Structures are given as structure tokens and as C-alpha cells.
Amino acid sequence: EKQPCMPTHPQKPLIIKTGVQFTTKVRLLVKLPEVDYQLKVKTTFDNRQFFILTNNTKVMDIEDYSNGCLSVEFRHLQLKEKKYINGTKGNEGLLSVTEELHSLSFEACFTVQGLTIDLEICSLPLVVISNVSQLPGGWASVMWYNLLTDEPKNLTFFTNPPRANWTQLSEVLSWQFSAQAGRGLDKEQLTMLGEKLLGHHVSCSDYQVSWSRFSKENIPGKSFSFWMWLDSILELIKKHLLPVWSENYIMGFVSKETERILLKDKEPGTFLLRFSESHLGGITFTWVDREDNGEVKFNSVEPYTKNRLSALPFADIIRDYKVISEGVVKENPLKFLYPNIPKDEAFGRLYNSPPSKGETGNSSSVISTPPPSQSPEPPMTPGEFNMLNEHLCFDIDSVSTQTHTKYT
Amino acid sequence: EKQPCMPTHPQKPLIIKTGVQFTTKVRLLVKLPEVDYQLKVKTTFDNRQFFILTNNTKVMDIEDYSNGCLSVEFRHLQLKEKKYINGTKGNEGLLSVTEELHSLSFEACFTVQGLTIDLEICSLPLVVISNVSQLPGGWASVMWYNLLTDEPKNLTFFTNPPRANWTQLSEVLSWQFSAQAGRGLDKEQLTMLGEKLLGHHVSCSDYQVSWSRFSKENIPGKSFSFWMWLDSILELIKKHLLPVWSENYIMGFVSKETERILLKDKEPGTFLLRFSESHLGGITFTWVDREDNGEVKFNSVEPYTKNRLSALPFADIIRDYKVISEGVVKENPLKFLYPNIPKDEAFGRLYNSPPSKGETGNSSSVISTPPPSQSPEPPMTPGEFNMLNEHLCFDIDSVSTQTHTKYT
DNA sequence: ACAGTTTCCCGTAAATGC
DNA sequence: TGCATTTACGGGAAACTG
Asked: Where are the stretches annotated Disordered (chains A, B) (predicted)?
């Protein structure tokens, strides 16, 4: 048999894609008095809509490392959709796929001292998707559930999802960046996000955000929701901007107005990096310049998307950027990363390829001090997050209402 | 049932990837006297190594358009490898996967006028692969087989594959470019290829090329074979250079020496486009320049690969190319496409995006006359090629030795 | 250890279904 | 018809296997 094959989407547990292998583990916390026969556990999925393609029964084993408690790990489980479920779908058609919550159940039956014990336990709510394009939507659901309820198993949560306080939500968002991209969001960045989501109410009081506003309805004038937009940025960072982001060189979330306010009094050639608000997964830079008549001028480039960034890393783009106007090539207009860090001091050690053939650009390796990192407390702590990441992990006796005991 | 889902790799018939759907069709050319019952056909694959996952039995139908002859089209067929075939693999382990030839068989049995007729027919040799990365190798096999034998079914062809005359082979190669990229190869291009493959013997006589030299052994000093290299170029053209190639603006196959001979007496700024010989799927340009002291100088860029070309189309790269040396930006050094076509006249109408922000570059749309196209006769004509492309198509009575008749 | 081969699965495009 | 969802499969990478 094969070995590792981690669960689906290592960064996003509790989301299972049909046809893709996942792993789950059950541990029996109560110590059974001398169960000398093999304790079989059976996993089943949901009620109607999906089923487990692969072998779903295994025998519990003593965990070698810990104190002899029994556990089973199911590997290579795979979900498939049931076809022809007499007409209607399992869940009411009002919810989107990523709002439908499912659960994995584990059953075991054994006899101790004349008692037949029937254990059943089921997982936290799971989201099932059929394509990775549904992953952001699924993850939005997991976050919302996690943030707003303590119920271990409320599969109808999204029929009437509660609102979230912006304070709580912003912590979750910062945590996403922290856990996935190595650096959370600071107050200013969160303020911009809050205003984007709620208008300028944020400052007044602790406003509430609806589920729909967060991840279902489109941002006015755009063709994507707030979360889709934010997640596209997270993905861009993960794939192409990790060092630049974790060094805190990307201000990222700044409105155009704020950007101008920040830049206008700065040295010409001062620039900052921000994420595109009009396109998914784009990053751009804006620099300030002074006209001959002394007037302040702002310039930006078309956002760079993953396509362009996979051809040339962002740091190199910054190093090599040139403006050519009216047939004259000017020198690189990017001089100081806001507020006033000389470009090469900030990006020097992030440059990758040598400057493109015959290019200017100083690639000396000035080492910049990594700025101090600090993170707020999130609703889901990084420890919890990591644990979830490890496996979908359940402890049988922790959900005691699920344990039925009957007498022989 | 679903509809189109063409066979695997539309451009490369006779290659089937496991787990990917393909289509095949059988037609009964003899007109049967009044067969009033349903004529069932069964498809089977090979003997040992693979099997057809999906439904493999269908009833023949009268083709609506033609003259009432019977045919079946199998759709959504899928191949899967048989596991545990008692120790050894089906074919001797000496051959690589792409050299193992397989066949699809069709069987039908019916009774006419007291005779039980047992029809069996089988396909041309097929190559089975498990990953698209094996496609070039598989296609090499198909070409070699097609070029060097007329036997309809010699599954052991590659245990001792014959050599090919360079004259024949070069026609096949040109045909690949013609069929897949819209323009074949001219004499000069083929000469360069011949020399690459055989050293400088080509000119002397009609040299023979071994199968191994063509697609198995690496080019000296490289980590890929001749065909892998050539096919990587074909793929690059198909994906990123189609218009430029079909307009004949890519000389492509020129040795560095020839390149210098061609360019040295030309106007400074004359450039030509050639494919990288050191890396798979790369294209570069070389231009001639004159130093202050009058000495001729040649410059080239690092090859552009699919990654870079998917970020910016090649024509735009040529338009926007600038050299920056010692802090001074010079104007675009590319002036005339060899021999003497003004750059914008050649590429003008192929420019895509507007020149990058504040860029020079004349994007006026000068229409260039498409150069006359001429193609040599190939071993496999384009008509034949297209027919193969349509479906794997067999006519039952065309392989009469496969028809067994027995009496009741 | 390693090369040839297969498996895995993301991400895009196309097909399907509602 | 249009949108939500699923299926298809190329392509890169990891896993497997002799």
C-alpha cells in the first residue's frame, strides 16, 4: 500500500473534494478493560448525497507511542457522489454546495463484561466540493462556522447563518494571512478591509457583517465577493509573494485615496505595493513623482497577476522596472519603498535571476532587518489550526451523547 | 449520454492514455442479406496488460447518411492497467512503454443462410501511455511504424526496428510541422536537422537514421533525444508561435555558424529567430551589430520558453525589446527581420497588447504579404492524417484474413 | 540509488444540469 | 437561456517499483 498522501488541500482541512483521497483518524480515549478481540471500526459518510468509494472498515490498533489507547487511521478514503437519489438532492436546493454541511461517522460495536456497547461518533461539519475552484467558498464556510458557533454538529447552520462582529471577523482574516502566508494583517490593513466590506461604518461601532455580504454577494460594481477577492490575494501571496509579504514590504490593503495621502509628501520615487481591487489576484505599485512645474503626480502599473509573476518574480520586476515615454527611456522610477527604505535595501536579497541581459539595477545584497512581527489572538488559534491540519482527528469519547449503550 | 469528447490528444491518434476516454468506430462494408436481428459487436483490448473499463458491447446501427451499411461507434472507452498479471509484464521488459504496441479487437458473430459467421478485426498498432509526458515518445513510435512498414499489425516492430533513410524521415518531419503547425520545413531547415542528427554525412549520400538515434539516445552533451527536442519546439509553436511560424518569420533551425554567416554582411539591426539547441522548447533571436571600430558583433537573448511567452506574446517581445547597458537605454536593436524586412512590416499585424505603458514601439498595422507556402509530399498525406484524426476508424472487411467462417 | 513509469491532483476549459 | 456545478484532462510533481 502507498504511504503519505496527506488529506485534501493541506492548508484547508474539513473540505473534501470528490475523487480525491483523504485521511482521517479516530482514537478511543477510554481505556477498555482487556478487549482481546479485534475492534472493528466502520466509517460512513453522510446520509444521502455521497458515499465512500474505498474500503471503509478497519481494525483498531494500539498506538505505539502513546499510552496504549486504541486508534485507527483511515487512509485513501475517497468520496463519490451518489447518482439518482430518487429525484431530489439530499440537501434542500436553497443552499449552494459549499454551504451544505456533511459529516463522517464512525461506528464500532463490542462487548465488555456482558454489555454490548455501540459506539458512534461523528466529525465536525465537512464541506464537499467537486472542483478546487470551490475551495475558497468552502473555506469561507468553515471559517464562518468555526467563528460563530460552538455546536459540534449543526448541519443546518447555513440555512440561517448568524452575522459576525467585525472585530471578531477581522481577527479571523488576519489569522488566515498569518497561518497561510506567514504574516497577519495590521490595523491599517484591516481598516481598509473593513471599509471595503461595510463602508465607513467600521470606525463608528462594532458593525456586524452578514454571511452573504462576506462571501456570497458581489462587491458593488465587481463580479466577485469580498472573500473571493481576499482569497485570490492570499493565493497570489502563497504562490508568488511569500518572502516579500512576510518581510512586510507589501502594504497591500490601501485605498487609492489613502495611498495618495501617504505618498504625496514623500520623496519622488517613493512607491508602495498594493493589491488590485478591480481584478482577482493582482498586485501593483504606485510611485510618486514631481512634474517640472512642481506638481505631484502618481503613477501605477497594470496589476501583475500569477501569469506574469510566474514568468518573472516580483522582486525582479521591481528591480528591472523602466518607464519609456516619448521614445526616451528614463531610469527606474522606483527608488524608495514607503516610507523611505532604499529599494535595494528592501528587495536586494530577494532578487532572484541576475538582472536581465545588459540591464542596470543594483543587485547588491544589503540585508534588511526583518521588522518585528506581532499577531493578535484569533478565534482559531494556530495550534488548533495545526492540529486540524494534521488529520481530521476525533476522539471517540469526547462526544458522549453519541454513545449508545444497551444491555444484552 | 454525453456527446463529443474526442479521442485522446486530437493531434495524435493511435495513442491512448490510460484513464482518458477515447472513441472508435467499426464499419461493416459487406452488405449483409437481411440480418433482421441485432448485430452485437464487442471490443476488447490487447491480451494481457490492459482492459477496457467501460461498456464494451454495442449493437450495430445503420449509418443514416451512407448506403445503409452497418456501423458502431464506441464512445467513452477507457483503458486501465491490469494489476498482478502473475509476476511478469505482458510484453518483454526490453522495450519501453512507448515501444510496446497494442491492438483493439472487434468481434461479431451472426448467422446467415445457415452459416455462422465469426467476424474479428483488429486495429492498427496502438501505443498506450499513462501520462502526457509520454506522448512525444509514443508519437515517435507511431511515426516510425508508419514510415517503415506496411504490415497492418506487427506488434513486435520495435524489438528490431529498421532504420530510416534521411530523405524519407525528413519528409515525415516536415509533415509534422505542416500538419501540426501549419507550415512545413524548407530545405535549409531540414539540412540543419539532418546535420544535427547525423553529423555532416547528410550531404554526402542518403544516410540512414536508427530508431535509437532518432528518439532514444540523447543528443551528445544534452539530456534529451533528437525527437524530444524537436517535439518540444513543435509544442512551443503550437502554443505560442503559431502566426509567427506560419508566416515563415521563424528561421528556427539554423546552426550558430550558419546564423553568423547569414547575418554578418547584413545591415546592423538585422535579426533572425532560432530555436534553442540547448534547452527544450526555447526560442531566441540574434541580431548583428557593428562596433565603433567597425567590427561585426552578434548578440542574442536567453531563450524564451513557454512560461515567459504565456506572459507576453512573442511578437510583443520583439516589438518591446530594449537593451540597457551601462545605465544607458538604447533603442530597440531589432530593425530588420532577415534578410531585410523592416520589423514592423513583418510583425506589425501580429502585435497584440498595446505597447506596455509609456513604451515606444510602432504598432502600426502594416500588412505583410504572406510568403508563398509549399509543402513536400509526406509518407503520411495530410488527408490520411486527418482521417486518422477523426476517429480510429476500421472497416471490418478490409482485413479479410481476420475473418473466420465456420459452418454449423 | 535510480530511472522509467505510474499515480496524484491542481487548475483550466468544457460539458452538464437545473 | 444563464448560472451553478460537475466532468475532463493536460501538466507538473510526487510516489512507486523493479
From this structure: 349-386
Q: How many CB atoms lie within 10 A of CB A258?
A: 16
Interface of A with B (CB under 8 A): 301-302, 307-308, 310-312, 322-327, 329, 331, 357-360
Instruction: Please tell me which residue of chain A has the smallest CA distance to B304.
Output: A311
Residues of A in contact with B325 (CB under 8 A): 358
**Residues 6+ away with beta carbon under 8 Å from B321:** B285, B301, B332, B333, B334
Give A65's Cβ-side CA count (13 Å radius): 0
Task: Kindly list the distances between the CA atom of residue B368 and the CA atoms of A64, B244, B371, in Å, as whole numbers in the listed order.
Answer: 76, 12, 9
Beta bridge partners of A102: A126
Distance of residue B375 Cα from the nearest chain A Cα, in angstroms: 36
Q: What is the CA radius of gyration of chain B?
A: 26
Distances (CA, A) of B329 to A292, A314, A317, A356: 22, 22, 17, 13
Residue A284: strand, helix, or coil = strand
Chain A 232..271 CB hits on strand D (< 7 A): none
- pLDDT, mean over chain A: 79
Percent of chain A with pLDDT over 90: 47
The pTM of the full predicted model, rounded to 2 decimals, is 0.83
Amino acid identity for residue A181 in this structure: A
More confident residue, B279 or A331: B279
The alpha carbon of residue B308 is apart from the nearest alpha carbon of chain A, in Å, by 5
